[in-house]
Amino acid sequence: MWEKWCFMWCDENSSIVEWSSEEIVIPYYYDVDKKYHRYFIDLKIKFAEGTVLLIEIKPEKQTKPPVGKRKTKQYIKESLTYVKNMNKWNAASEYAKDRGWKFEIWTERELENLNIMPKSANKIKSKLKPMPKFKKRK
Fold it and tell me: Which of 18, 6, 29 has its CA nearest to residue 112?
């Protein structure tokens, strides 16, 4: 949903001459499995004055190292996600730098501060309850 807010903002922003979603593919090395992977950047924006931004849209929680002392499954999962994100973002930063572009990570906080997403959108999403599972009739 956050990407959708960004797409609508790009469409309505007169200073943006061109934008695309997940069309830039950046190779990155994942420190955990010691292999190269492909990273599809969330958003590329070209502004009228010439600036080009590569944007990754992520929950703020995923931009910080996990908190906890016990090595639970959740902690391990969050740790692996954090390492993967850092590997991706380092590769994206170098990719952008090589082309004279900028790389930024936008969280829900940036989306609200830039008036891309209304502050109420986050609250609405957090109040939504999952739909009950469908039960088959016999």
Answer: 6
pTM for this model (two decimals): 0.79
* Burial of 81: CB neighbours in 10 Å, binned 0-12, 13-18, 19+: middle
Give residue 33's domain range. Answer: 2-117
> Which pair of structure tokens corresponds to residue 43?
């958003």
- How large is the average pLDDT for residues 106-127? 76
In a domain, 9, yes or no: yes
Q: Which has more pLDDT, 68 or 22?
A: 22
SS (H, E, C) 18-38: EEECCCCEEEEEECCCCEEEE
The verdict on residue 64 lying in a domain is yes
Q: Per the structure, how many domains does the chain have?
A: 1
**Within-domain flag for 127:** no
Rounded to 5°, the CA angle 40-110-85 comes to: 35
List the structure tokens of 36: 């190269």
Q: Which pLDDT tens digit goes with each residue over 75-113?
A: 999 999 999 999 999 999 999 999 999 999 999 999 999
Q: Rounded CA gap, 75 and 77, in Å?
A: 5
